[in-house]
Amino acid sequence: MTYPSIARVNDFWLEGFNHNASDQEYAEHIELCAPHIPYLVRASRQLTGRMVRYLVDQGVRQFIDLGSGIPTRRHVHEVAQERDAECTVVYVDFDPSVVADARDVLAGNDRVAYLAADIRDPESIFGAPERARLIDLSKPVGLLAIETLLYVSDSDNPAALIRSFVDRLAPGSYLGMTHCSENAELRSGLEIFSRMFGEPPDVALRGREEFEGFFAGLDIVEPGVVPVTLWNPLTEEDVGRNAHLAHMFAGMGRKS
Ligand SMILES: C[S@@+](CC[C@H](N)C(=O)[O-])C[C@H]1O[C@@H](n2cnc3c(N)ncnc32)[C@H](O)[C@@H]1O
């Protein structure tokens, strides 16, 4: 595969092994225009670990991860199964090259499945045999969408989409999300990219209010909607140096 994929670009920033020269070049172009993006990607992966550990501590043992990318570098199943080997995970992504790599990575782990599906079609996920094998919908689920809705445009009504996932889950389930925020720095990064390299990544930046709206009907857990580095940090490394500059919101809601 020679075309750049955002999942493999992330893998480059996370110092993984599942990217190629075109992903690296694309990553370097993005970095040139928006130098803080790799920091946000790393902060987001650390946040995923904190959310998963939190959920396992709340008794959640099954996870659905939307827009998963490459499942390495301390992704959901690694953290969850380290806490409790019984945890099951269904990853979902629609990029065929990512799915192929991901299935290689997960070979032999029969408590994890990687679905090739479009999250804009929830039925294709809930109706999948692998979902039925691994996720019991009568029990709480940890639903995660980490830097995923950024790629779902307003015309696809992401709030209704998230609601349709949550509606299918049992009480006691959780929704954990991050989202790059609407801000001048990222906007100008996209503009610089389009001037230097052509079409920029097609992303939908969203403000706090819109992000909070994705949790409608859920009880937001502490500490609420905050910059990604400030969601229950455990170490200095989690917080980073300039938490207030982390233009990415994180939040989690519980279905009662
Ligand atoms: C920025 S990456 C985030 C990956 C991962 N959640 C993480 O935290 O590293 C976004 C991923 O969402 C996937 N994606 C975007 N739109 C999607 C859709 N409609 N259905 C399924 N996957 C999608 C992309 O292929 C990509 O792998």
UniProtKB/TrEMBL annotation:
This is S-adenosyl methyltransferase. The lineage of its organism: Bacteria, Bacillati, Actinomycetota, Actinomycetes, Pseudonocardiales.
